[in-house]
Amino acid sequence: MYTVNRTEVFDTWLAELADLRARAKILVRVRRAERGHFGDVKRLEDGVSEMRIDCGPGYRVYFAREGRMLYLLLCGGNKSTQQADIKHAKTMWSAIREELS
Length: 101
Fold this sequence. Notes:
Blueprint: E1 3-6, H1 8-16, H2 20-34, E2 41-43, E3 48-53, E4 59-66, E5 70-77, H3 82-100
Parallel strand pairs: 1-5
Antiparallel strand pairs: 2-3, 3-4, 4-5
């Protein structure tokens, strides 16, 4: 089982998501990730990965791993905001890694 730490940015994005069905699917994916079942994931750069949610406009949840047990949910978005979201997730992950060291 993995420890999942959610950032305030992620929690705010999820709480403001108007599509309740998508929100439920995202929460199910997060719970599955806690058990080690990440599903459709793409590794990006700088230690950041993207969990792809097949719902609505193509929701994405960006996360990174530190060690074997700690996963951090950085932020979320959809296909239309993907490039900006990836950049934001990488910046957040860099700041978190500095705090951890």
